[in-house]
Each structure stands twice: as structure tokens, then as C-alpha cells.
Give the backbone structure.
Amino acid sequence: MAPRMKGLPLARIFAAIVVLTVVMSFIMLIPNWDGEQASTAAPKIDELLDVMIVLSSFVFSIVMVMLTYALWRWRAKPGDEGDGEPIHGNTRLEIAWTTIPTVIVLFAAAYSWTVLDKIETEDADRMPITAIGQQYEWHFDYPDQGVTSEELHVVTDQQIEVSMRALDVLHSFWVPEWRIKRDAVPGAPGASIDDDFVVTPDKAGAFSLICTELCGIGHATMRAPVVVESQAEFNKWVRTQDPLPKDSAAAASEVAPQ
Ligand SMILES: [Cu+2]
């Protein structure tokens, strides 16, 4: 260790980092960042965010405590016009500032991976729906029920598998309460883009599907009603919908000529 590192009050610096981490985490965990939870994925994603907030608070605290300490400890004395002392590397410090972020990032990657794995697990009885976006509206094809609609109706606690289609430009599917967000890419079927996802809504109610990819002048109005309801209500609703045109799914899957 370089001579000038001697006499660093490491215990007190470490204590200050821990205290600031606790205070920052406490403050940053107060807001309900994501709002209402209405799918089985939501609590898992929110928990992941909370863990990331604590990790970020820890990194923030290391930087702030070290910076503040350095500013105070090695500030120039009044009248000192001299240059700073030339300093070469400090091997222990460099090993520390390489190892700690590496461990944090690897932990975050592994944890995110397991969460993603859980929320992408497919149920055998999932219900397929094709969500089709075009400037500036959504519609939804239900191949199993043979209907098409401008509203997204789903059954509580029943997993849905949503295939995304875009007929013109990029759009993006987002129901905030479900936490799931996925782009719809023109020409996607068969392209190398992962264009479908599963989600299990677990709270009945009315929500809003929001296009969350700037897609043109009417983007802000590109929304669709989302209704999560019982199987009986869903079956009743299906009977009032337009039949799915024979060529509908095929037409939706065509690459729109540009
Ligand atoms: Cu849009």
C-alpha cells in the first residue's frame, strides 16, 4: 500500500458506507415505483427492482463516502500553490475496485436470469392470442375461440401466450400492471426476433394496453382496453365478438410491403 494510504480510518469509512447504504435504500424503497401488481410476474419483477435499488445504493455510497473523504482529507492548505504529489498505481486498491463491481454485476446477472426464467415458464394450458399493432390501433385474434376484437379480454389466473405482429412500423405492447413489455416488429414471424411472450394475469379488472414505442403522430392515443375476467364472463364475451376471418392470422403474418 502506498505510504499515503497509511492511517486511513478504514473501519470508520466502511461504517459510513454501510450507514449511507441503509439510509439511501430506505429512502429509495419508499415510492411504489411500479404501481399496482396484476400478474404473477409483477411481484418477481418488483422484487428484482428492489434488490437492484439496494445494490445501486451500495455503489453510490462507496463513491460518495470516498469522494467526500478525499476532498476533506487531501484538500489544499491555504497558500499551497504547489502541484499534487505524483502517484503511481496502488495494486490492492485496483484489485478491490475490479473485484467488487465484478461480483455485483455477476450476482445481478445470475439473479435476473433466474427471474426471467421463472416469468417465461410456459403453462401447458396457455391460451394463444395474436396482438396486432398498426398506426394507431390494436386488435386481437383468438385462434382457439375463432374471434377477433379490438379489446383484449383474458381470464383471471389463465396464462396467455401473446404473439406480436406489427403491420407497418415498430409498436410495443405494455400493460403496466402486468409489467410485461414487448416490441412488435414488422415482418417478425420467422425473423430472428423473439416476438411472443407469456403472462398470467392474476387480478380481475379493467386495465389499459399502451403502445410504448414511438410509432408516429397518433402514438399517444394508441391504447386498447384490457379486461381480466372470470371464465364464464370471458365465454359470454367471446359469443358477442366478430368471427375471425379465415385469412386473418395469415394476413397479419404477411410482411407488409414497405
Ligand atoms: Cu406507438
Notes: The chain has two domains: 9-73+90-119, 127-253. Confidence is low (pLDDT under 50) at residues 250-258. The radius of gyration is 26 Å.
